[in-house]
Design a protein that fits this description.
The protein folds into 3 domains: 86 residues, Sandwich (Immunoglobulin-like); 304 residues, 4-Layer Sandwich (Purple Acid Phosphatase, chain A, domain 2), CATH 3.60.21.10; 102 residues, S-adenosyl-L-methionine-dependent methyltransferases. The longest helix is centred in the middle third of the chain and has 15 residues. Helices cover 12% and strands 34% of the residues. The strands form 7 sheets. Strands 9-8-7-20-21-22-17 form a 7-stranded mixed beta sheet, covered by helices on one side. The protein has a 7-stranded mixed beta sheet with strand order 10-11-12-13-18-14-19, with no helix packed on it. Strands 1, 2, 3, 4, 5 and 6 form a 6-stranded antiparallel beta sheet that branches. The protein is mainly β and 563 residues long. The protein is elongated, with a radius of gyration of 29 Å. Bound molecules: fe (ii) ion. Fe (ii) ion (FE2) binds next to loops.
């Protein structure tokens, strides 16, 4: 432990039944986390203040379009009850689970898709413990395949429970404001140093209580979640394809659908990463069976990184970075994965749109592996245009800086468009054909933003200006390479005129120039001279791309003044 973690007290509840009359002996063991750690400190206080009855939660797990699980922990055991309904004060449904426990898990079923429900938790004997207010609600998933816009929050290596993690959290809360977070992902190392229950208490349950009770959290396991029993005890993952996707039979790796996105969680830490092993066999079958247009995959160990971890070093993290790159990526890319989210390196590293790079960084060949070498920003080089289908390009994000940043690493992996030593988290927004990802730093600044787009590229028409007696260039971008592009103009008005290809924004008579064949970048340029006599009048222009026999589309219209 370092920094403020050194001074944190961990709270344990001592069962009073273990105490006897007279003196009691309390034995405590203290262990160094690493053999070479130079310091060790210990302090202990025993208090008779009873802890609050509600120790943890409520938190939401395993959301589907018809169900959700609500979990919480109490100090004393009781049965489990959830009231829910359309509004606080109108919680007209009750689900109770008999049997006394301190670890409560209630599944609500038979819910309406894409619907907000308010809720309260408690027990049948003790009444409401928490909820029945505007802060306790959930919204069920929209049906799979529906184009409902949504927002997801993504945290990597957030488990420090310190001021850095809280700054990242607060920056996102300020950014998102009253907009609902539909789901959130944790990319592993969610509770340092060892993923013990008390560490989860501090790093997850006491750090994100507001988000936990209204947005379903989907985790993956990092190398610091050392305790299998603690990790799988806290989280409820789908093993039977309950939330969409194919049954994985394992809580370590699973998939689910949200609207028109298929999310795939892999376990890069403990499960076999080998081809033909259970995880990658399931992965291939799962991807083969999804009909969703978007696919997002997430796990802990990054396939490409030059941050705190180096994906070129085979021995780094026991070969986990290399294995995921060599064995998981070819399957994911063959089934058209769009976005891969990982952590582990405490930095932000984000790739270009790439495909087919499974070796060391020295083997990255931009000529064959770079699908789009721009920034992916619609306000910069333009969105990444994606086809649906295999090997159409993937963006890889390392987002492991939600709890701390690392000073090590050269941050110069050649697949990366940008590499930042900044605290922050990711905002993922999907709206039909558009997927946008932002890296939001701990001060609320968007330091990187890119967009994937699966629709047609718009046909964009521009000119260099019309000057009487001079040449001008008529320019079209966004055509399919090799297609014929025509340039049309009218001196009388902006239409409309009905044609066999649709409505044209020009008035007859219309003059046609071209065609010009669009080049490899989809650009077509025609240079023409403007007669000296044309000065002082308007010209109405529009371009047209012939896409096949009887099939074509028009560009944006232009109205130009001849100077
Ligand atoms: Fe890690």
């Amino acid at each position: 432990m370092t920094g403020e973690s050194e001074d944190r007290f961990w709270f344990y509840v001592l069962d009073p039944g273990l105490l006897v009359q007279g003196s009691n002996l309390l034995a405590v063991e203290v262990h160094q986390n690493a053999a070479d750690s130079p310091d060790l400190s210990f302090d202990l206080a025993l208090s008779d203040i009873p802890p609050p009855e509600l120790l943890r939660g409520p938190y939401l797990q395993l959301g589907t379009d018809q169900s959700v699980r609500i979990r919480w922990r109490t100090f004393s055991s009781s049965d489990s009850a959830v009231l829910y309904g359309p509004a606080p004060g109108n919680l007209n449904q009750l689900v109770s689970v008999p049997g006394h426990t301190t670890e409560h898990e209630v599944e609500l079923t038979g819910l309406q898709p894409d619907t907000v429900y308010y809720y309260a938790i408690g027990s049948t004997s003790g009444g409401i413990l928490s909820g029945n207010d505007l802060q306790h609600f959930f919204r069920t998933h929209p049906p799979a395949g529906e184009n409902r816009p949504f927002r997801a929050w993504i945290l990597g290596d957030s488990g420090t429970a310190n001021t850095d993690a809280r700054a990242v959290r607060d920056a996102y809360q300020t950014y998102t404001g009253s907009a609902h977070t539909d789901l959130w992902l944790m990319l592993g190392d969610n509770a340092y140093e060892n993923g013990e229950d008390v560490e989860f208490q501090a790093a997850v349950f006491e750090t994100y209580p507001e988000m936990l009770r209204k947005s379903v959290l989907w985790p993956t396991r990092g190398n610091d979640e050392n305790s299998e029993a603690v990790y799988y005890g806290i989280f409820s993952m789908p093993t039977q394809g309950q939330a969409g996707g194919l049954a994985s039979g394992s809580e370590a790796y699973y998939s689910f659908d949200f609207a028109n996105v298929h999310f795939v969680c892999l376990d890069s830490d403990t499960s076999s990463r080998l081809p033909g092993g259970p995880m990658l066999t399931w992965l291939e079958n799962d991807l083969a069976s999804t009909m969703q247009p978007w696919i997002v995959a997430f796990w802990h160990h990054p396939p490409y990184s030059k941050g705190g971890h180096d994906s070129d070093v085979d021995a780094d993290s026991g070969g986990r970075l290399r294995d995921m790159r060599q064995y998981a990526l070819p399957i994911l890319e063959a089934y058209g994965v769009d976005l891969v989210l990982t952590g582990h390196s405490h930095s932000y590293e984000r790739s270009f749109l790439i495909d087919g790079h499974y070796g060391y960084s020295t083997s990255f060949n931009p000529l064959t592996m770079l699908i789009d070498g721009g920034d992916g920003n619609p306000n910069g080089d333009g969105a990444y245009q994606k086809e649906i289908g295999p090997h159409a390009g993937t963006v890889y994000c390392v987002a492991g800086s939600s709890g701390s940043i690392s000073s090590s690493g050269s941050l110069d992996h050649p697949v990366m468009y940008t590499s930042l030593r900044s605290l922050g988290s990711l905002v993922l927004e999907v709206d039909d054909l558009r997927m946008e990802v932002k890296f939001l730093d701990h001060q609320g600044q968007v330091q990187d933003s890119f967009t994937l787009w699966t629709g047609d590229t718009p046909l964009v028409f521009s000119t260099t200006g019309l000057f009487a007696g001079f040449m001008t260039s008529l320019i079209v971008n966004g055509a399919d390479p090799g297609n014929a592009v025509y340039f049309l103009y009218s001196l009388t008005g902006s239409g409309p005129t009905q044609t066999q290809f649709g409505v044209m924004d020009l008035t007859m008579p219309i003059t046609q120039l071209g065609p010009v064949t669009a080049d490899g970048q989809g650009k077509a340029i025609l240079s023409t001279s403007i007669p000296a006599s044309a000065a002082g009048r308007s010209v109405y222009l529009q371009a047209f791309e012939l896409q096949g026999v009887g099939v074509g589309r028009f560009s944006n219209p232009l109205t130009e003044w001849v100077h």
